[in-house]
Write a structure and sequence with these properties.
6-stranded mixed beta sheet; 18 helices; 6 strands; 49% helix; alpha/beta
Amino acid sequence: MAKYDEHFKLSLVQQYLGGAAGYKSVAKQHGVDHEMLRRWVMSFRAHGVDGLKKKFSHYSAEFKLLVLRHMWDNALGLGQTAALFNIRSPGSLIVWEREYRREGLDGLTARPRGRPKVMSVGPAKPESKPDNEKSREDLQAELDYLRMENAYLKKLQALSSQAKASAAEKAQIVQELRQQYPITGLLMAAQLSRSTFYYQLGLRHQDDKYNDLKDTIKTVFERHKGRYGYRRITAVVRQLGYVVNHKVVQRLMGVLGLKSLVRPKKYRSFKGDVGQAAPNELQRQFKAEAPNQKWVTDVTEFNVAGEKLYLSPILDLYNGEIIAFETNKRPVFDMVSSMLKTALARLQPHERPMLHSDQGWQYRMPAFQRQLRERELVQSMSRKGNCHDNAAMESFFGILKSEFFYLNRFNSVDELRAGLADYIHYYNHERIKLKLKGLSPAQYRTQAVAA
């Protein structure tokens, strides 16, 4: 460490006291540490020029104890105490305090210089001596330590029911008691290092800064009934003004115990060969450049209390929106025909989307195909036994059942039918999609039309 003479120290102290600059500015100008300059100023204020002279570095055990008692009684910091008693290094007080807690007054007695033959490990409370050998100071120090240790143990028992407390719990107790007892002694009683204590405090402050975000994440998760994973929730909270990484959202959802439900396997049914099949014109090209270019359709089945309900929707591949849908307790042709009429009524005269389906008997009916020819729509069908050719529609059914059907209990098919209408409206107008830039299908279509 660099040696500074009395005149150099005095010049820096006077420059600071002149009010022209602060500690950091003066210290940086002369190439010294600003904390060192702070100690020089405190020493000068307490002792004048004598406080800047080279200090005597050997102190008696009685003097050390006097310094420690004054520091504890007045809740002073290390720097303040060192300046008040004109001690060369504030770090010496830490050593004195540790040795006094461990060995009492004997621990403050100067030892021969050099490495000790036996190294002690970890902090410990003051050793007990026979009563006839203890001084007044020893007894007082032991009493203080026992009071502090008792307060710590009471807090620990109230806070933790586990046999071994965590570092976070220990740090919390030390933080609560540090206004009543010296922190060094508390850390000894807790068997907690100073660095670990401040690290745990930092973690507590870090958690606090996410309180608002946690509340928002929980609200979004509950609003969508557990259907959103961390990616969609990240998109929503960003729309609400938060600047946050998806990994942070994922971690906080783990802390809150929020997890999107795993999608169960979808229902599969067999469809026989009836009527005339159409070629596979779609060829798994599931991307559309504009609304009403490519439609897909299929029928799915629900079972409630021994009764069945069938759903027949049409989905626009441009934005995944459900254009039209019908439900029925039986998979009759009228259900599919009525759905198609509703969808066709939404088209402009120049719009002629391709309609893709599987080879279900409803789509091979002459009446169904005639409706398509009258509006000059191209019909496309998946290859036999290949569900991947209509993967977009199958994907919607999987989402519908995992986010709605499997999450609720229905007493009747009528209750299910009403719920399906509500969910499809939610799916079209509220449920965002990441591939749609975080917009719902209806919002994405409106944006495209406006552009």
